[in-house]
Each structure stands twice: as C-alpha cells, then as structure tokens.
C-alpha cells in the first residue's frame, strides 16, 4: 500500500518537493522522523473527509493485497498493520478497500491523532516517547511476548514482517522472516547491514513465499516447537506486562503465525 501520508502531503499539504526534502533530512540524520512527521502533518489544512476523497482517487493499493488478506484469513494467520501513520486514516482506508467486515479482522498498531473538524489541525498522538514516535521494534517485541503467552506449551510464534520504508528500519532485526519491497529504503538498509530478507514486488510474491515457508515448517517440525525459520537474535526479548502489551488474538492452528 502506498504511504497514506505521502498522498495527503503531496496533494494537500507541503507538496511533493518539500516532502522529499524532509525525507532526505531523515535519511541523513539531520532531523528525527518524529520532528519531520510533525511538520508534514502540520502542513495539512483540510477536513478529514476532503482528505479522504483525494486518497480514494490517488492512493495506489497493491493489486495482490486483497488476495493476500483472504489467504491469511483462510489459513488462520493473524495479519496486523503496524504503521508510523495515523490510525484513523488507516482504518478508513482498510474499511473502504476491503469492506468493514473483512477489515475488522486486521488490528492496526499505529499512532492516534487529533484532527479538527474544520481541518485546521492534524496532530499525531505518538505511540511512544521517542524520536520515532512509533518504535516498531518495541511494538514487535510486545506483540511477540503477547503471542507467546497465547500459544500452547509446545508452540512458538513465528513473526513475519513486511515493510518498505524508513520507519520500518528498527523493526528489521526483530522478525523471524523479513520481507522488504524491492528498490526502497528498507531493502537498502538490509543490504547495507547484511540483514537476511526476501525482496518482493507485490503481495502476490509474499503469499507465494509464505506458502513455501508453511510447507517447509510442516515438513521439518510438524508444526510443533521451534519454527523452521526461527530467528534466535530476534527472540532475545523479555516478557512485557499486560499493561504495555499490544492486544493480539489467539490463533487456532498448529503454528502461531503473526504478520506485522
């Protein structure tokens, strides 16, 4: 899915040229992701409904996304959206594209927002007090701990992360299986830091690879115990309290699988 914020900023806010300059400032470390994001969101001066009308026209959604989501539902794979964006926007996009019933199966782990009815202010309510605003690595650790608590004694959750951009970099080392969209910043980061990953062009590619992972896991482990693609470095986590943890649903199959 195309970045929802970029669609809004380019068409209704600071503009594509300014947004690209700000993105470069993040990449060079001149400014933090949170600081730049606050400037971008602060550049919007339109009501939410007007902004969403533009997104409906301009947002480019991966052609394989709906099929991939159906695949997850059919195989009891919990699919969560973990985002540096704003939850109200993401929920509306998913409800519109997938339908409210199907979209309700997706938990969104993202920042909240205060959006004035007249559009005079778009203010992110950051999930974490950090330079990232939303530390996806921390959210993944919380999610892994919660999934482990829900698992049966002989099960261990397999965490799969699918990403592309700057905000995904901290989460890259936390997954058992990492997918990075080809040609974008996350793939560059993985190459620079020698992090194992699978490149993809569309969710059709991701679906095919996960089918292969499921087959491999069943053949090697019978779906019990440590997953075949288990990443020991990503599993050096500490149990978090229920107050801190993300709410995850139990998965009723032989191997807990979580997609982030």
Automatic annotation (TrEMBL):
Entry superkingdom: Eukaryota
Record-linked Pfam families: HAD
Entry coiled-coil feature ranges: none
PANTHER family: PHOSPHORIC MONOESTER HYDROLASE, UPF0655 PROTEIN YCR015C
Protein name as catalogued: 2,3-diketo-5-methylthio-1-phosphopentane phosphatase
Organism ancestry: Eukaryota, Fungi, Dikarya, Ascomycota, Pezizomycotina
């Amino acid at each position: 899915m195309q970045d929802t914020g970029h669609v809004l900023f380019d068409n209704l806010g600071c503009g594509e040229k300014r947004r690209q300059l700000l993105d470069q400032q993040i990449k060079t470390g001149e400014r933090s992701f949170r600081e730049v994001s606050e400037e971008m969101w602060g550049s919007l001066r339109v009501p939410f409904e007007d902004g969403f009308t533009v997104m409906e026209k301009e947002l480019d959604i991966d052609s394989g996304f709906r099929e991939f989501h159906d695949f997850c539902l059919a195989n009891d794979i919990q699919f969560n959206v973990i985002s540096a964006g704003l939850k109200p926007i993401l929920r509306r996009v998913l409800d519109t594209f997938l339908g409210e019933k199907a979209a309700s199966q997706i938990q969104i782990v993202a920042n909240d927002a205060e959006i004035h009815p007249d559009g005079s202010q778009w203010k992110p309510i950051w999930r974490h007090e950090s330079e990232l605003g939303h530390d996806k690595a921390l959210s993944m650790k919380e999610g892994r701990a919660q999934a482990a608590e829900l698992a049966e004694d002989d099960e261990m959750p397999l965490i799969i992360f699918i990403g592309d951009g700057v905000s995904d970099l901290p989460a890259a080392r936390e997954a058992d299986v990492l997918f990075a969209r080809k040609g974008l910043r996350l793939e560059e980061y993985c190459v620079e830091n020698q992090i194992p990953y699978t490149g993809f062009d569309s969710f059709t590619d991701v679906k095919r690879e996960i089918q292969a992972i499921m087959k491999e896991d069943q053949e090697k482990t019978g779906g019990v115990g440590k997953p075949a693609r288990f990443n020991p470095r990503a599993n050096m986590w500490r149990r978090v309290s229920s107050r801190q943890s993300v709410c995850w649903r139990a998965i009723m199959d032989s191997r807990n699988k979580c997609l982030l």
